[in-house]
Amino acid sequence: VKAQDWLPWSLLLFSLMYETSTFYVPGVAPINFHQNDPVEIKAVKLTSSRTQLPYEYYSLPFCQPSKITYKAENLGEVLRGDRIVNTPFQVLMNSEKKCEVLCSQSNKPVTLTVEQSRLVAERITEDYYVHLIADNLPVATRLELYSNRDSDDKKKEKDVQFEHGYRLGFTDVNKIYLHNHLSFILYYHREDMEEDQEHTYRVVRFEVIPQSIRLEDLKTDEKSSCTLPEGTNSSPQEIDPTKENQLYFTYSVHWEESDIKWASRWDTYLTMSDVQIHWFSIINSVVVVFFLSGILSMIIIRTLRKDIANYNKEDDIEDTMEESGWKLVHGDVFRPPQYPMILSSLLGSGIQLFCMILIVIFVAMLGMLSPSSRGALMTTACFLFMFMGVFGGFSAGRLYRTLKGHRWKKGAFCTATLYPGVVFGICFVLNCFIWGKHSSGAVPFPTMVALLCMWFGISLPLVYLGYYFGFRKQPYDNPVRTNQIPRQIPEQRWYMNRFVGILMAGILPFGAMFIELFFIFSAIWENQFYYLFGFLFLVFIILVVSCSQISIVMVYFQLCAEDYRWWWRNFLVSGGSAFYVLVYAIFYFVNKLDIVEFIPSLLYFGYTALMVLSFWLLTGTIGFYAAYMFVRKIYAAVKID
């Protein structure tokens, strides 16, 4: 059921044109069921963290209903590979089913052909999970872990965790078994009604216990009902990939009453045992950042005051001239760099990314993009990036004018197409590989055309609009004039090397956020829910502060070494933490993921390259603008004849 969209105000206009599924804060649009009302079970997709390729439910020979209908999906759902479809499970509210057979004509078992058996066996060995939903709640498998906290205590505490979806099957001693019986356990919350009214119920939890039961152990009758074997004396249903297999698909339904209110029904899926790790990492980051801020501020401010006082002493001009330092490059520090158009375009895209990420995290922190509104996060991010083209274009245009650029139309086109073009190109190549695998993760051609239309129909005109006004605006006021003849740059020490700068500058911002990075990677690559946007917002603020500080320190050292070519270097060095993100992504791939095939590896590193590029643009832009403000401030503070 669709609740009415509630997009952020900036997207209100577009939501009229493009049908997007809900942004609902849990507690807005519950569905009330009466006794014996049908509760529809839908299938979302099959996923595996080993292959990273989602497939739609009916890509495997499951029982099909008489008519297959797919749900109309929003942009985010399509990009995630969700293909929500109806299933033949007949579930009625608060009505038990002991055991029922699916798709059995005249009591005959389902026969899987050799090809189907091979495909099912392959998906089981690749660790595929099946994802179903009932009333928009994803199915979960309960895992009971026994943790013996105290060795003397004989009582073991049960630690209950939930796994998203259920395993398609399992392997044991080179034999492959399929989970062909599903025991659904649904929890309802009985709503308080007036005496003469019929009770209404709301679904608040959806669990499944998958079982593998051999054909011979299941007793069936003419009415499609069946009897499960008693106790543990049954054998599992083996799938032999070399021959035809016969089996029954069966299910049972059990209802339980629950005290969980509808508004907090997602808490089960979002309970994380490691919230303490988040608090610890954030407090750690805050302490480190403030400590370093204090030290850097003291050193820089004291040194700068001393420098400025020395430079402004009228009577010691002769002594000052013999000294070295950042004042000596005052006639060259604002000399425009090489390729000013590309620099301003990249910084414009960086501003666009910064605005988009800031708004998305803030809106998500307010609870408007909870996982219950499928695909909302991705849809919002795409639209916001398009709309933020105005700010990106404006900042790029103004900077390009400051750097003595003249070809504003070419600059605007470069800003609108350079970074999005690289992203689109990489995604298109990866999409071709996913298409080849017939995965539902492949973006359909109409969606691709729609994205291109958004890029050239919304983003490009907005970037041009912003660029036009930015280019017409007064350029940034540089406090000192640039000399006609460039000054000679003295030979630089080894530690002023660009790569050494990247290594040094990247450590602090990366250290502030790497624990959060682990959870984001788990959400992307291991099909977990990520919802701790409050933490993420704090981490983002810490990242902005630490990038700015490091950038200021690096530019100060560079100017003290009388090297005035700081524009490009500062942009590259400020994004140094992106290099550490790349190293961490490789470490995560080797240690955490069980990916062995070529195409999943290609997908992982393709998407990682996009993440690293975007992160470099983001942190580089933050650092660049901090350094630019700093340089203008310090040169405005010294007297220059």
UniProtKB/TrEMBL annotation:
Any one Pfam family match given in the protein's UniProt record, by short name: EMP70
UniProtKB keywords: Golgi apparatus, Membrane, Signal, Transmembrane, Transmembrane helix
Subcellular location: Golgi apparatus; Membrane
Keyword Transmembrane helix attributed: yes
Signal sequence, renumbered to the chain: 1-22
Chain ranges passing through the membrane: 279-301, 345-369, 375-400, 412-436, 448-471, 499-525, 531-559, 571-590, 602-631
GO terms (BP aspect): protein localization to membrane
Membrane topology of this protein: Multi-pass membrane protein
Keyword Transmembrane in record: yes
InterPro entries linked to this entry: EMP70
GO cellular component, one term: Golgi apparatus
Family: Belongs to the nonaspanin (TM9SF) (TC 9.A.2) family.
Name this polypeptide is given: Transmembrane 9 superfamily member
Species of provenance: Rhinopithecus roxellana (Golden snub-nosed monkey)
Name of the gene: TM9SF4
